[in-house]
Amino acid sequence: MAKVKAMMSRVWQRNSGNPLVIGGLILATAALVMILPRSAVGFALFLASLFALFWAKLEPRHKLVMGVISLVVLLPVIGILNRYYMDVAIQIGIYMALALGLNIVVGLAGLLDLGYVAFYATGAYVWAIFGSKQAAKFMHVGTYPLRGEYFWLFLVIGVVAAACAGILLGLSVLRLKGDYLAIVTLGFGEIIRIVLNNLDKPVNFTNGPNGITAVQAPALFGLSLGQGIDYYFIVLGLVLLVITVSRRLQESRIGRAWEAIREDEVAAVSMGIPVVKAKLLAFAMGASFAGAMGVVFASKQNFVDPSSFSFMESIGVLSMVILGGMGSVTGALVGAVIVTVLQLQILKSVSDYFSYLRNAGILNLPAQLEIAKYEKFVFGIILIIMMIYRPTGIIPSERRRLELEGKGSRGDTGTGGPPEGGKAVPTSSTGTGAAGLGGGGY
Question: Where exactly are the structural domains of the chain?
Answer without folding.
Answer: 18-81, 86-311
